[in-house]
Amino acid sequence: MSGIAKAWRVLRAWLNRHRIQLVLALRVTVAAVLALAVAQLVKLPLPLWAVLTAVIVTQMSVGKSLKATVDYLLGTIGGAVYGGAVAVLVPHANELALLAVLALAVAPLALVAATNPGLTVAPITAIIVLLVPTITHATPMASAIDRVLEVAVGGITGFVVSFFLLPSRAHRQAIDVAARTLDHMARALRALIAGLSEGLDTEALHRLQDGIGDSLVRLGVISVEAEHERVARIAAGPQTGPLLRTLLRLRHDLVMIGRAAEVPLPEPIGVRLRQPVDHAASTVAEHLRACGSALRARRGPPPLDAVEAALDAYDAEMAALRSEGLTRALTAEAAERVFALGFALEQMRRNLADLERCVTEWATEASAGARTPSAAAAG
Fold first, then answer.
1. Are 122 and 113 in contact (CB under 8 A)?
2. What are the residues whose beta carbons fall under 8 Å from the beta carbon of 3, sequence distance 6 or more?
3. CA 278, CA 261: separation in Å to the nearest integer?
4. How many whole angstroms from its chain centre is CA 164?
5. Is-contact 260 336, C-beta < 8 A?
6. Which one of 1.10.490.10, 1.20.58.220, 1.10.287.130, 3.40.47.10 gives the CATH number of domain 170-368?
7. How far is 48 from 36, CA to CA, in rounded Å?
8. From CA 204, how far away is CA 360, in angstroms rounded?
């Protein structure tokens, strides 16, 4: 029994780690099967395109599925209209003429797709509209209409499945990624501050910053999907832009701290600053984690009092060092790092205030959303 229990724990842990991927696989499978069933029901000539479209537009989040569906439909309609017009208006009775017509149909749409990646399906659709009649002996106009119908069936099916079957909102994903980014920043800050007394390996510094950068890139992508959901009123919530910009500024603060921490601070400055800097770093790191937890729970942010007190203590110690004249004995390079550290911490104070406003906005929006159903029921 112990072996079975252990295997079940391992399996459950694996399922939890890959829950999002498993849900996506389920949605893609259902979308493909349902698209084929609908295509057969309405007797589409080539159900293949409906199934492929359903698979393509079924994405990780509802917002991404919406954008993929709209882009795919617009690209298909544009490609079908232009490709059908070229096929009807330009004679191509022999192979040489067909090559010329194919170039005429593809070239402008390829340029459009190159400037607007969301319309990459347009030249593909034009090729299908132009060449399928040579195989099926259908008219170009019928081929264009069939192509639009097939993509419409697949696109709508894929979006409906994404919307109703275990839907994943980009707004919810944005919160999760932002919270993980804050946790990562908290760990990085502790490691960077340790470098002020022990020095920091350049490779370790780059690894820390790259991890945060990857999270912010992902958050930027998800933010675009979340805005699609907001515009379409699929999901309610504040704009993700302010939160993303605040996290980017906090990352810049960490970059400056990292540059100051590449080598230990010189004595006696390093000894005097060690305790206030360590205290400020641990307090800020704990605050970042608490803000991440508040985002996940959609509750108000933790108070900034402890952070303000820790940064004020650092400022007071720096003022004492300057009044004693210790900073005048520093080399230009050391002085630059000491003052860069102070500037980074002051900027972090301001950016943490912005983070507080962002977390408050998300919590306020969640409270408003929770009150709306009850208010409607009361009415």
1. yes
2. none
3. 13
4. 22
5. no
6. 1.20.58.220
7. 8
8. 34
pTM of the predicted structure, to 2 decimals: 0.76
Residue bearing tokens 């919160």: 175
Positions of the chain with pLDDT lower than 50, given as ranges: 370-379
* Sign (positive or negative) of CA dihedral 152, 125, 36, 134: positive
CA distances from 126 to 84, 86, 118, 134, 299 (A): 7, 9, 16, 14, 51
Structure tokens at 270: 């390093």
pLDDT for the residue 329: 79
Give the number of other Cβ atoms within 10 Å of residue 139's Cβ. 13
Cα separations (Å) of 219 from 179, 213, 235, 300? Answer: 10, 10, 17, 21
3-state secondary structure 306-348: HHHHHHHHHHHHHHHHHHCCHHHHCCHHHHHHHHHHHHHHHHH
pLDDT at 246: 96
Phi, psi of 338 (to 5 degrees): -65, -45
Give me the pLDDT at residue 375, please.
Answer: 38
pLDDT reported for residue 372: 43
CB burial string 216-241: b at 16+ within 10 A, e below: beebbbbbebbbbbbeeebbebbebe
**Rounded to 5°, angle at Cα 299 from 370 and 377:** 10
**Which among 206, 138, 172 has a CA at the least distance from the CA of 61?**
172
- Going from N- to C-terminal start, the domains of the chain cover 22-164, 170-368
